[in-house]
């Protein structure tokens, strides 16, 4: 998709690309600023190359305006999600408590996995799954 965006940008030219610049920059910006673990470095490099191509095509000033608007929009979305999460914690404490328990459980599992990778002879105690007990009819 990034290659397609680059090809369309070159095909449209300097004048016709300007209205579509924020739309094109949004996925490129998201890829550059992502920090998840399984990130593909080739994808990051490709997005950087396309951004450089757009800079040359549109000019630094027009590109900077569009890029800053995309950046501002992403920061607003992030702040909105954070605010909604905080409000949900107050409005639905049971859902928040479940999410917190799940996060703590995952954190403990990660810690155990890390210890096992550092010391292969050490075997951490794993929490047994009680899936069959959960499915059983309890009176």
From TrEMBL:
User: Start and end of every U3 small nucleolar RNA-associated protein 20 C-terminal domain?
Assistant: 1-116
GO annotations of cellular component type: 90S preribosome; small-subunit processome
Residue stretches spanning the membrane = none
Q: Which domain of life is it from?
A: Eukaryota
Q: What is this protein called?
A: UTP20 protein
What organism is this sequence from?
Edolisoma coerulescens
| Gene responsible for this protein | Utp20
């Amino acid at each position: 998709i990034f290659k397609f965006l680059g090809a369309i940008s070159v095909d449209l030219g300097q004048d016709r690309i300007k209205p579509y610049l924020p739309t094109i920059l949004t996925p490129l910006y998201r890829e550059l600023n992502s920090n998840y673990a399984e990130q593909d470095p080739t994808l990051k490099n490709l997005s950087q190359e396309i951004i450089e191509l757009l800079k040359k095509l549109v000019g630094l000033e027009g590109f900077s305006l569009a890029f800053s608007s995309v950046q501002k929009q992403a920061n607003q979305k992030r702040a909105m999600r954070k605010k909604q999460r905080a409000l949900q914690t107050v409005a639905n404490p049971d859902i928040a408590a479940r999410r917190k328990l799940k996060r703590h459980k995952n954190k403990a599992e990660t810690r155990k996995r890390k210890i096992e990778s550092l010391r292969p002879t050490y075997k951490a105690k794993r929490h047994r799954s009680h899936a069959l007990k959960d499915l059983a009819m309890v009176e």
